[in-house]
Amino acid sequence: MYFICPTAGHCTSGMKLAVSVVSASGTVYAVNYVVGDSSGWTQGVNYATWAQGKTFNVGDTLLFTYGSTHAVDEVSESDYNNCVVGNALSTHNDGNTTITLSKAGSMYFICPTAGHCTGGMKLAVSVVSASGTPSPSSPTPPPPHRHTPSGSTTPPSTTPSPTKYYYICQLSFLNSD
């Protein structure tokens, strides 16, 4: 891209700029996980088994799909372990909840309906940063620019979808000398 000053005589006296943007990291993939796969967020699913073997990265999403008798509460580790309801960090009950994994560390989810959590309707995920190591005490900042396609009618899946990150901006000043 090239920029010039529109004032008469300024461009010819050197007031112009060339900008090049290059991709430093190439394509980065985010994964959209449907919690419980085709079963969704419901009773009778072993969510520990579902999560086993999956690597949850910062930027990935969890899609909880569920009926009107369920909800999704994000809770503390203690509330997760003891199935305590009423202390949720966040509550969702729209039947189609997307949670973006925005920081490294552990995240805990339960269904707050009486008896559901104690019956196994709970999910713990360990989210890793780009370096591949959990870091619960320090959130990962968002990338400088993230481009995701809009208007997609494809349902969420565990298939990676490309996302470009651009990190380097090279500025060159052009001189008329």
Automatic annotation (TrEMBL):
Residues 129-162 are annotated as: Disordered. The keyword Transmembrane helix does not apply. Signal peptide: none annotated. Transmembrane segments: none annotated. SUPFAM superfamilies: Cupredoxins. Residues 149-162 have a biased composition (Low complexity). Residues 1-23, 31-129 form the Phytocyanin domain. Pfam families: Cu_bind_like (PF02298). One of its GO terms (molecular function) is electron transfer activity. This is Phytocyanin domain-containing protein. It comes from Rubroshorea leprosula. The lineage of its organism: Eukaryota, Viridiplantae, Streptophyta, Embryophyta, Tracheophyta.
